[in-house]
Amino acid sequence: MPGAISDVDGVEESRKRTVSLLNGPPPIVKTFDRAEAEARAVGGWIAARLKEWARPEEIGVFVRSEAEMDRARAAVKFAGAGAAELTAAAEGAAGKIAVPAIICMFRGSSRGPSSPKFPFSV
Where are the domains of the chain? Predict the structure, then answer.
């Protein structure tokens, strides 16, 4: 990212400590034949981040619908962490990984929910 940006009025804003979510390492995309294999892989990835630098409350596991919530919970369990399910009435909890009840922002795969493959990306 550039060190500074200017708006149409010529006002310049420093970007020195800005981290772009769009400019980073490419995502890792894997598919699995079984939900347990997916949960172990995701849980392993999460566990590695927890050991390297992250606190549980800085991590979120997002799924497309309520139907995948068990998969998210299993991944958090394989990571050796606790899950805090986010709802309209409940926010995250210290020391817990956030697991939103339903997230439908976009779909990164053409596979539908009935697919035998389980996509995973980070």
Answer: 57-111
